[in-house]
Automatic annotation (TrEMBL), chain A:
CDD domains named among the record's database cross-references: TM_PBP2 (cd06261)
Protein name listed in UniProt: Binding-protein-dependent transport systems inner membrane component
Biological processes per GO annotation: transmembrane transport
Annotated compartments: Cell membrane
SUPFAM superfamilies listed in its UniProt record: MetI-like
UniProt family annotation: Belongs to the binding-protein-dependent transport system permease family.
Entry annotated with the keyword ATP-binding: no
Occurrences of domain ABC transmembrane type-1 (ranges): 80-270
Species the sequence originates in: Sinorhizobium medicae
Membrane topology: Multi-pass membrane protein
Pfam families per the UniProt record, alphabetical: BPD_transp_1
UniProtKB/TrEMBL annotation, chain B:
Pfam families reported for this sequence: BPD_transp_1
InterPro entries, A to Z: MetI-like, MetI-like_sf, Sugar_ABC_transporter
GO CC list: plasma membrane
Topology class, membrane: Multi-pass membrane protein
UniProt record, GO biological process: transmembrane transport
Protein name as it appears in the record: Binding-protein-dependent transport systems inner membrane component
Highest taxon listed in the record's lineage: Bacteria
Species per Swiss-Prot/TrEMBL record: Sinorhizobium medicae
PROSITE patterns per the UniProt record, alphabetical: ABC_TM1
Membrane spanning stretches: 20-48, 84-105, 117-137, 166-190, 211-233, 275-293
Coiled-coil blocks: none
Family stated for the protein in its record: Belongs to the binding-protein-dependent transport system permease family.
Keywords annotated in UniProt: Membrane, Transmembrane, Transmembrane helix, Transport
Length: 285, 307, 372
């Protein structure tokens, strides 16, 4: 578009390089660290070239760590399993409940629909602890403390509004005439929902589900407040890991790598959808 | 010629279920709403009570006392100050950095696209885990950043352990995680701008600074405002990064609203104060978000109408 | 084929009344055209008949049965939309087949039905394509095929030729009546093009503001329009409208045109002195010799040759414009002074205040009025 001088192009290149280094460096460093023995890690100056080892990952996966003072049990795999369970289940439930609700909101402008939508949206910006702290007591009272069931329901607070908001927009984008045509052709509203609305909104539903998964996986404070050690996901588990004594830095790094890989991989795989979802459709072409 | 038969029984059954259908479908959304509102109002009640978990028998209404006490409580003003400072610094720096990077990546090219995808990654990292990563990087024993700091003469830079530099450290983490968010929004905005004004300016030989300040920036304003508001609302209630890094310490240097409320609830078991703090925070975010939502819904309606 | 009756249909959106106490009676096998400008409520009415929208009041009867509370999928209707409304994620074949798959017929029956209709509409070579690979004309035919394939007794066509280019529209205007006649269904056809309305309809219902202003055969609409607006909408070039005040004469009422008297047979004293608008269709005016009886002098200003006719613009003695239309090829004056002859019996007289046509007195008592 505009003609750039070589100096300018050089400056631009330098700036971009610095930016990329800044944002990529921590991930790269942790990744490298996860393949280093404790001895390599503690060496000063830090070594770029080293012989990698898999012992950190092995310790995490087997759950046992051999140290000078004996064997230590590491329950990190349990945290990973919790993350998977909570995120997948929460998104599945949120999709099951949210997609039909989004359809109802999109197609039937009934009394109260705008109010419900507004409430859900305005609570996206509200402090989570406001709801969570009283919930600790309600959960105890209901017997839901530290249960997967209770946690999945609370995770709906993260996933459901997101799915409702994004998917409703996709349903609204489908011309009503197309659905009318299928109805008139002799099909029930449910058949129309299944065969016409769902496929046409498919990309949006996938985007919403992906984003909900990432948000659920990355969540910290919900599980911190409402879960105990055996049900905590990796976000809380990793912190406990770090503050525990006797854990080696290599394993901490490996734990962090295992914790962030799923979301990073998903993000790379589906990056196109993320822009729209992140801005809640505020950025529409 | 096809003929269609109907039974009146089938007719009435469909009509009833059709009326009820939207409500049935959106029931879960309604339940979630209720699930939010009940604890919310409970918290409101708590904020008007003198309530300590360690002394449940002494629980009683003290009405506005919790709020009034804040005026004379240096701890509250500290919380307010740190929260506003944190939000202000992070959002400003992220805005400037995000805008700069978006401008650098504006042109569509394989390299630029690749870089913008890569820059997504910090945003996709759990903020609590990002804090842990930076905690390791700033570890005085082996942390790469401590090492680099010592190279430029800053021996024993205490990063998050020192009251002087703790804020700097968490701000750094916040910038690392959230700048890509602003970058993505502004990049999408930049790429969606119409090309004619810029082509015309190029033809007329208008200097680039003029183009930037008088054409680009004004057209980007809705995106900038959206990004700023989103981030402000999130930043003022930041919990994950700060708690994971220092749990509010050292001392009370990082006791922003949600961290302070958390500590009040679980450490000092002071439910009343905790609730009151959160209600104040909620009020701030509610006012700000309402302004934003009202305008945004209006813009969306207008865009829908034109479509 | 089946009958359709609408009784006192009312439909409101927010505070606006879109359909205002509308009633309609369509005979079995009839082709009824709903004609009117946008905003007149035609599209809403069609969707109401189809059953995808509910009326706020009134009943819809199809084949004599009250279908007001019946869902669209049970009404036995075929509908073609203005914007085609094809399913983008399905092939043309599946689009058309959708009207048959709801009946749980065998795959062979469905395939046979789809091929039969698509051959009729000449799209059987693009059946495997998806809508985005089809041209507008092919999309339109696919939409039509989908409406026809189930042989529904009632067909609703919502301006299907609107989004199709002019040449194809012209072809379809010839093809459609043949197709629809072969189907034998009762057809409700919506259009904003008066030529289409006159070519396709057994009867035309002219709608405006949610009401039917006039309903009748094309000839009735053209030769006996209920008001100025309808007279103006039907006819090309547009009807000449001149403000006049009729006077009493020895052999009936007359109006003055170019200082000459134009007798209006059939009208009596009731129009004398009334503010009226005279309507003269350009093709009912002919050029005449100066000496012939009743010749009215005009000054020819310009002449426009159109394909099948030539239109001349003339000015009366008082400077009012009159368009005269004659078949192409017939001779006529090109410029300067000329004379025209007008048969007073073909003239319309409208009440200037209400716009409604004033019926010749002998007929007024016989008629029981047009549809409201």
């Amino acid at each position: 578009m505009e003609t750039t001088s070589p100096v300018e192009r050089l400056l631009r290149g330098v700036a971009l390089t610095l930016v990329v280094v800044f944002f990529m460096f921590p991930i790269v460093w942790i990744f490298l660290m996860s393949f280093q023995t404790n001895e390599t890690i503690l060496r000063i100056p830090p070594s770029v070239v080293f012989s990698p080892t898999l012992e950190n990952y092995a310790a995490l996966i087997t759950g046992k760590l051999q140290t000078a003072s004996g064997t230590l049990d590491i329950a990190f795999m349990r945290n990973l399993g919790n993350s998977v369970l909570l995120s997948v289940a929460s998104v599945a439930v949120a999709l099951l409940l949210g997609v039909p609700a989004a359809y109802a909101f999109a197609r039937h402008k009934f009394k109260g629909s705008e109010d419900i939508a507004f409430t859900l949206l305005s609570f996206r910006f509200a402090p989570p602890l406001l709801v969570l702290l009283p919930l600790t007591q309600y959960f105890q009272w209901l017997g839901l403390s530290n249960t997967y069931f209770g946690l999945i329901w609370i995770y709906q607070l993260i996933c459901l509004p997101l799915i409702l908001w994004i998917v409703r927009g996709y349903f609204e984008d489908i011309s009503a005439d197309v659905e009318y045509a299928y109805r008139i052709a002799g099909h029930s509203w449910f058949s129309t929902f299944r065969k016409i609305a769902l496929p046409l909104a498919g990309p949006g539903i996938a985007a919403a589900g992906l984003l909900a998964f990432i948000f659920a996986w990355n969540n910290f404070v919900f599980a911190l407040v409402l879960a105990s050690a055996d049900k905590q996901p990796v976000t809380v588990g990793a912190l406990a890991f770090v503050t525990a004594s006797g854990i080696q830095y290599g394993q901490i790094a490996a734990a962090i790598v295992l914790s962030i890989t799923p979301t990073l991989a998903l993000a790379l795989y589906a990056q196109r959808y993320l822009v729209e979802g992140l801005s809640l459709g505020a950025v529409k072409g | 010629m096809a003929s269609v038969t109907h039974s009146s029984a089938r007719r009435s059954r469909f009509r009833i279920s059709k009326r009820v259908l939207p409500y049935v479908l959106s029931l879960p959304a309604l339940l979630v709403c209720i699930g939010i509102l009940i604890p919310f109002f409970t918290a409101v009640i708590y904020s008007f009570q003198r309530y300590r978990l360690s002394q449940p028998w002494a629980r009683q209404f003290n009405w506005g006392d919790n709020y009034l006490n804040f005026f004379t409580d240096p701890g509250f003003w500290n919380t307010l100050k740190i929260s506003l400072l944190y939000a202000g610094v992070t959002v400003t720096l992220e805005l400037l950095l995000g805008l700069g990077i978006a401008l650098l990546l504006q042109r569509r090219s394989t390299v630029n696209n690749f870089i913008s995808i890569m820059l997504l990654l910090p945003l996709m990292t759990a903020p609590a885990l990002a804090a842990l990563m930076w905690k390791l990087m700033t570890n005085p024993g082996f942390g790469i950043l401590s090492y680099l700091a010592s190279l430029i003469g800053l021996e024993n830079f205490r990063w998050a352990s020192s009251p002087d530099t703790a804020l700097l450290t968490v701000v750094l983490v916040d910038i690392w995680v959230y700048t890509p968010f602003i970058m993505i929004l502004l990049l999408a905005g930049l790429r969606s701008l119409p090309t004619q004004p810029f082509e015309a300016a190029a033809l007329d030989g208008v200097p680039r600074s003029f183009v930037f300040f008088r054409i680009t920036l004004p057209m980007l304003t809705p995106y900038i405002l959206t990004a700023t508001l989103f981030r402000l609302l999130d930043s003022i209630q930041q919990f994950d990064i700060i708690y994971a890094m220092t749990q509010g310490g050292p001392g009370d240097t990082l006791t922003v609203f949600q961290v302070e409320a958390y500590l009040n609830f679980f450490q000092s078991t002071n439910v009343g104060r905790s609730a009151a703090l959160l209600i104040i925070l909620w009020a701030i975010t509610y006012i700000l978000s309402n302004i934003f939502i009202k305008n945004w819904l209006r813009l969306r309606e207008r865009a829908r109408g034109e479509a | 084929m089946t009958t359709l009756q609408l009784k006192n249909i009312v439909k409101r959106y927010k505070s606006q009344t879109v359909l205002d106490d509308l009633s309609l009676d369509v005979a079995g096998g009839e082709r009824l055209v709903l004609f009117g400008p946008s905003g007149s409520g035609k599209t809403v009415l069609l969707r109401l008949i189809a059953g995808v929208i509910e009326p706020d009041a009134g009943r819809v009867l199809i084949g004599g049965e009250d279908m007001t509370d019946v869902d669209a999928e049970h009404r036995g209707i075929g509908m073609a939309f203005q914007n085609f409304a094809l399913f983008p994620h399905m092939s043309a074949f599946d689009n058309i087949a959708s009207a048959l798959t709801s009946r749980k017929s065998s795959k062979d029956t469905i395939a046979a039905g789809v091929h039969k209709v698509s051959k009729l509409l000449k799209i059987d070579h693009v059946l495997s394509h998806h809508p985005k690979a089809l041209s507008n004309g092919q999309k339109q035919r696919t939409a039509l095929a989908r409406a026809l394939v189930g042989s529904p007794p009632l067909l609703l066509l919502d301006d299907p030729l609107r989004n199709v280019d002019a040449k194809l529209r012209f072809e379809m205007r010839l093809e459609l009546p043949r197709l629809l006649a072969a189907q034998g269904a009762t057809v409700i056809y919506v259009t904003q093009d008066y030529k289409e309305a006159m070519a396709l309809g057994d009867r035309i219902a002219v709608m405006a503001h949610g009401r039917i202003r006039q309903i009748g055969t094309p000839a009735e609409i053209y030769n006996a329009p209920a008001d100025i607006e309808i007279a103006r909408l039907f006819g090309d070039p547009t009807i000449n409208l001149l403000e006049v005040v009729p006077q009493r004469g020895p052999d009936g009422a007359f109006v003055e045109l170019s200082d000459m008297r134009l007798r209006l047979p059939g009208f009596g004293d009731e129009i004398v002195g009334k503010q009226c608008v005279l309507g003269l269709r350009p093709e009912t005016i002919a050029f005449a010799e100066a000496a012939s009886q009743g010749a009215i002098p005009v000054t020819v200003e310009a002449e426009t040759p159109l394909n099948e006719k030539t239109v001349t613009l003339g000015l009366t003695a008082r400077g009012r414009e009159i368009l005269v239309s004659r078949p192409a090829g017939t001779p006529g004056p090109v410029a300067g002074p000329a004379h025209i002859a007008v048969d007073g019996r073909t003239a319309f007289l409208f009440d200037k205040a209400t716009g409604r046509r004033i019926l010749p007195s002998e007929l007024a008592s016989k008629r029981n009025g047009e549809a409201a």
